[in-house]
Model the fold of this input.
Amino acid sequence: MLSRVADSIFWLGRYTERAENYARFIDVNFNLSLDLPPGMKEQWQPLIAASGDREFYVSLNGEDFSREKAIFFLGFDERNQNSIATVVEMARENARTVRENIPRESWEVINDLYY
Done:
């Protein structure tokens, strides 16, 4: 196997894993927030901090760690290189470059997720 192919497959796995982990973090934090007592503040700031992108988040949104802004930043913000949308795009690009070396079903799932 060429090192280029191995590298692309490695990063395909890393990006896929990162997208899955972020989705799980958002899901768990959202569901926990539904059970909070009235008046208790939701905890989105620690999630942003755990992602390692707190400084970048603050540069875009200030100290507003609302549910909507946090979910958008972690899930869909194309300016965030670690958002789910961005890493899915990078996973797809890596899969595209090694399409002939991965199962057709894998390519189709990643491509469908991208679109």
Remarks:
- Helices lie at 3-34, 45-51, 54-61, 67-75, 84-97, 104-114.
- Residues 3-114 form one domain.
